[in-house]
Amino acid sequence: MTIQATITPFNTFERVESRVRSYSRSFPKLFDKAKGATIYDMQGKAYTDFLAGCSTLNYGHNDKDLKAALIEYISNDGIAHGLDMFTDAKEHFLATFERLILRPRGMKHQLQFTGPTGANAVEAAMKLARKVTGRTNIIAFTNGFHGVTLGALAATGNGKHRGGAATPLTGVTRAAYDGYHGADINTADLLDRQLSDPSSGVDAPAAIIVETVQGEGGLNAASPGWLKQIEAIAKKHGALFIIDDIQAGCGRTGGFFSFDGMGLSPDIVTMAKSLSGMGLPLAVTLIKPEHDIWKPAEHNGTFRGNNHAFVTAAAALEKFWSDDRFAGDVADKANYLGQRLAAIADDHGLTTKGRGMMVGIDAGSGERAAAICKICFSKGLIIETSGSFDEVVKVLCPLTISLDQLTAGIDIMETAFEAVLGSHRAAAE
Amino acid sequence: MTIQATITPFNTFERVESRVRSYSRSFPKLFDKAKGATIYDMQGKAYTDFLAGCSTLNYGHNDKDLKAALIEYISNDGIAHGLDMFTDAKEHFLATFERLILRPRGMKHQLQFTGPTGANAVEAAMKLARKVTGRTNIIAFTNGFHGVTLGALAATGNGKHRGGAATPLTGVTRAAYDGYHGADINTADLLDRQLSDPSSGVDAPAAIIVETVQGEGGLNAASPGWLKQIEAIAKKHGALFIIDDIQAGCGRTGGFFSFDGMGLSPDIVTMAKSLSGMGLPLAVTLIKPEHDIWKPAEHNGTFRGNNHAFVTAAAALEKFWSDDRFAGDVADKANYLGQRLAAIADDHGLTTKGRGMMVGIDAGSGERAAAICKICFSKGLIIETSGSFDEVVKVLCPLTISLDQLTAGIDIMETAFEAVLGSHRAAAE
Amino acid sequence: MTIQATITPFNTFERVESRVRSYSRSFPKLFDKAKGATIYDMQGKAYTDFLAGCSTLNYGHNDKDLKAALIEYISNDGIAHGLDMFTDAKEHFLATFERLILRPRGMKHQLQFTGPTGANAVEAAMKLARKVTGRTNIIAFTNGFHGVTLGALAATGNGKHRGGAATPLTGVTRAAYDGYHGADINTADLLDRQLSDPSSGVDAPAAIIVETVQGEGGLNAASPGWLKQIEAIAKKHGALFIIDDIQAGCGRTGGFFSFDGMGLSPDIVTMAKSLSGMGLPLAVTLIKPEHDIWKPAEHNGTFRGNNHAFVTAAAALEKFWSDDRFAGDVADKANYLGQRLAAIADDHGLTTKGRGMMVGIDAGSGERAAAICKICFSKGLIIETSGSFDEVVKVLCPLTISLDQLTAGIDIMETAFEAVLGSHRAAAE
Amino acid sequence: MTIQATITPFNTFERVESRVRSYSRSFPKLFDKAKGATIYDMQGKAYTDFLAGCSTLNYGHNDKDLKAALIEYISNDGIAHGLDMFTDAKEHFLATFERLILRPRGMKHQLQFTGPTGANAVEAAMKLARKVTGRTNIIAFTNGFHGVTLGALAATGNGKHRGGAATPLTGVTRAAYDGYHGADINTADLLDRQLSDPSSGVDAPAAIIVETVQGEGGLNAASPGWLKQIEAIAKKHGALFIIDDIQAGCGRTGGFFSFDGMGLSPDIVTMAKSLSGMGLPLAVTLIKPEHDIWKPAEHNGTFRGNNHAFVTAAAALEKFWSDDRFAGDVADKANYLGQRLAAIADDHGLTTKGRGMMVGIDAGSGERAAAICKICFSKGLIIETSGSFDEVVKVLCPLTISLDQLTAGIDIMETAFEAVLGSHRAAAE
């Protein structure tokens, strides 16, 4: 019986998987296949994926070229796991990253392959900043998200995650993100004031770590001017400037780095999520050469050499970043997406959030946002919330999504907003 | 020219990779393929792998069945990355793990998929123990290794790694491992004495975390009796008993768990390394149901659902753990390996370390051990050191290695020991 | 010879006292006697004391009635030291404090006799707030000073003192004091914003600790409205409201408590400095009954029962606080002092700081302020600086000073300001 | 009415004093006068004081010469409070301390006047050791007591006090005191083993802090040989050697320092309790000149110049330490006291603890010890307990006690032991 068939696997999860599981609660279906911007459940029902692994699948599910490269590599007995030994796949990735990403930007950063999670890349960045400066305090921002291992978690703002530590989190001073205290207050000035005052009680920082767009924190997007000022404050006070580009990087906001074109020169950049191109675990910490003072193996990790990910990552760089076409395409889609969301927001007296293809609508409350997402899912759209109160409906679709599928997804969103919030336009007329 | 060919890629690493890299310094070759217990460099030279990803490749490189399962999965557009949504691959892994591993042992643990690194599994375990007990102190042991993210690093003993934090590590009290103070002192008694004394200054612990064999710490193997006593001490003092089975598990010491057959019932078990079977990043924290009090997503991580790894992990369980043959085979090899190492050690007045297929010889100093490993590598054997002073030559070959290749590898070791230490037997005669 | 006579004792200090000594560097004379607002050096030269033990000698040196009470007590073999046993002197102090201070204000606080230092009273307050709430984070303010023991030091803003810890200070989040970011920004709103946001990264606080006037931090005086708002924020977010009244209390700003008449109801008040009336070590932590959840001796200290100090403290309460005359007298002097300082400040385009008899002039730089104080000392006036850059010339004379001596002291200040800054009034004419 | 008279003051304490009070629970009488080894309650009843302010009153209550010196000083308007300015009283104390204590021992230590509590002296010592070495870890011992402010509390072993922090205590690693693991285990060897192992997980220490006799921890007395070894271990591993002589110093164990005659040369010594001679708050941290790297005021505190205490402290040094008579007298009494306690212990199959005039009997349980002390109090003897379970009946009488009063006190103890434990000798016959 089909009922039996669908119930059994759920029972497995109920029986064997920890209750820490989360997304499966919003999307209680059993999925098996995925291609591009579409995920399929076991009954063959297709869902458009506006979540995309929280920006891990910027190039979509199972891109045919990445897939082919990976299958070929495996078929040829390419090394899957080699700790951090020299492998052909790693060399190819490094050379490609240097050629297509670093050199065109005049960047001379060294790549540290950390454990293949964003949190690990952040941990490495924080440790290194402390080593380099001999200071321990790190400035992180309200609503920032940097991971949940104990070092990174201290920099993360989210209260639920912080509470999971069940012990005090130390080593981080919180500063207010761009716009946090309203349009009239330049929060960078507040930070500079404190760091310039030897009796402020804010210790001289080892680093300032910032996301250019806060993915988990509510799609707050910092202005280039504010980021420039934060970078200047870091330099002025002898701190390293770290950009956590884990969620906003890899094209999500347009360029390969979310800070492309802003004239910034971060001392350290953390990357993960879409870096492997295909959703495979991979993370790097980019370090300016003068700060690369690690002793061999001082920060290590078994899976710091995920060679499958090197293969797909190099293929992704080659496919999407060897010229400007992909970036241009993303810009066009972002433009369309932005206009559509602005219209929906306008209809309901709401505001949009974010930048590039990392945008959403502040629905006004977590309850509303949850209701909207639930309706979307019932109509075949996977979409999630973000923000302090989960009040932002967030679009993180694959950047490679077709315009038709993007349009159809947004249409579902529009319907869901109307279903939950009523037709304001109609009401007004 | 071949010279050019070999030099160029090294230049890439020199130019672009952080100096934190380590194993590539011991084995300065460029590798591209691997099969079973053999790795090949770009010139096609074959090396026997007695390192095996530090016990990540217990089933060897590119096992044909795991490889086939993975290629089929990818070819069919199986989901690569799905955050922690329900997927067919995950369900299949969970059900297989339950059927082949948990049920036969009467274990009812829940599986938490943490970020796919051992450190992350340990972080989750430590956080959860603190949540469950409302205490913050965790007992870890001398020479223990549990990862380098800030929470796990506090539990790690290695001074170089600890120094990498560049900030004080907190929340862990150090206890002496089995045998640490010599054969006459039962270190479990020392710990119990301190925990039983309300004025000892050792705060009531949330957990005691222990490796049954300390892989990085010098292949120190705890006796079953000592482990039983540590478990009893944990229970007596209201602490959770955590076994970190990341390196010693998955058959390395014989059974699937390194503690199989010891009558232990750990509250939490951490696993990673060989869990995926093929070297892909995967980690789980096994939690007794009564301790699984996580809120949804309280501990999360982008790559906690590495579906490729679920596929190979399930295939590995099916292939190696559906009956006793593999374990029996490992036991035979371990027996042979142990005898050979004992003979070598005996020749030079040295001692062996470890248990099962996680064994080595204390060469007496780090310099000697390094010299031995260097000779081995020149003769086509990849082998590394372990211990406080890197003084232990450590054998972590694939468990699936053929007896011929195992023998050949040990023969190289024997030669290298003689080359460095002289032929004691000869001298004595 | 007089030269020999003056040099010898200095040699003793040079030889035997730690270089941590500080005030003796500003006032390099050997003093032996003191009466009222006057200190005498060994040559019999008189100095007017505008430092008064940093507000520890609000009733002047060796007040005749306090002195008489103490001599009588000692002569009669009154208990000097009794740990925290019940003594007649303690009972008398408690009953007097209750009758003259607590009851008239409708306060029901319990008195905890901590170790007899302000820092210890603050440590007790912080520990208790954490016990009561089960939270660890404590909000303290920019430029706050609360002592230099490790717990209190975390709440102290001064960088030099913080650096003395030589280890990271934890458990405190820094907020901006009233006016810290200029007149246009209500810093209480900034704090409330962060505490109201579950993802701000500022953990729910156990307490907010504040000085109504920051004595060491530059004589910054908070407005009653801001303090009321801070108290409301504490209550709103489940935190205890702690006023550190160690320097500003005991009449320094007019009332016995610096917050008298503001309608505040702090959960905990810390007191020390002038509490004993005669400069003897004494500190108390006042605790609302519902928060007094200490176990017996949970916070202890050998000198928590300084009975000599109980005797003089009770006598001081009786003499100065049994009616309104003293407070009225202080108000008159504060009025005169304020006008004189305003005139001096106005002459030089400077601003005054502080409130009541805890006032000063921001000289614009630490160099200027030091030069002014040095001239004052050469003219027989002991006066010190305060502030992030030691830029504030601070008046903390005994509250009992005669109008004549006060006038003469201010006259010296006026001369010193002119000597250092020139005669602006003259220049303008 | 007498009933009214005795009840009223108790009501005051009940109403107004925090429940943290402790000794008043064991000795619920209201005391007013004290002389030598005798305290009197308000009804004039005399009690022999075998507690002596926990060793703060080594020279007895209100010694006539100290009292006379203090009264004269106050009568002449001697400075009571002068922050850390140069005063005649301080100079006299420093010169006397140098002449009578430091020079005869060849010590060149500098005196830092910290806040006048033992805890503050310990905080200063810990901070300075961290500054000097650039390390943060401090080794402290099981059952050690060093104070309850947050820094010192981390070094204190007692669980109740530690729990009062309500936040994790950091920066201290616990080692086992001499004899802690029984006579067969040299705990200094255990510590050396851990510090010599770079992977032990015990970070290189800034200091080792130790009491020669653990006053609060159960009168555990370290052997000179063990202390020498601990000092050697500190030096070997680059750590400062700190002796906390707050309770055991000032003649309590015979010499002025508890380590006199042991050939030790501690880098830092902390002193408080009996230092002032008369029970007035005073504390110093003695620092070898090469470690006295404080910046001016880096560690400060309002009451660091308690001039009344300087007066009595200098007088006490002059009276008791200008020749060997006092030390000889203490040795004689200690001999007598030791024999009597040994006899009592022997009668009941118990063991004695401690050294010099800091001795007691392990009654076997806290209940027994409490019962014994209660009986003693009912017979006019004030005596308290010590140890992890408050199981040690502890004699800390004034060192100046007459042999008659000492004998009478011990007789009461003997009776109380028999009352609680029965007459074993009788039973055996």
From TrEMBL, chains A, B, C, D:
GO terms for molecular function: diaminobutyrate-2-oxoglutarate transaminase activity; diaminobutyrate-pyruvate transaminase activity; pyridoxal phosphate binding. The keyword Transferase applies. Keywords: Aminotransferase, Pyridoxal phosphate, Transferase. Pathway: Amine and polyamine biosynthesis; ectoine biosynthesis; L-ectoine from L-aspartate 4-semialdehyde: step 1/3. SUPFAM superfamilies: PLP-dependent transferases. Its cofactor is pyridoxal 5'-phosphate. Pfam families: Aminotran_3. One of its GO terms (biological process) is ectoine biosynthetic process. The keyword Protease does not apply. It comes from the Bacteria. Its EC number is 2.6.1.76. NCBIfam families: dat, ectoine_ectB, PRK09264.1. Belongs to the class-III pyridoxal-phosphate-dependent aminotransferase family. This is Diaminobutyrate--2-oxoglutarate transaminase.
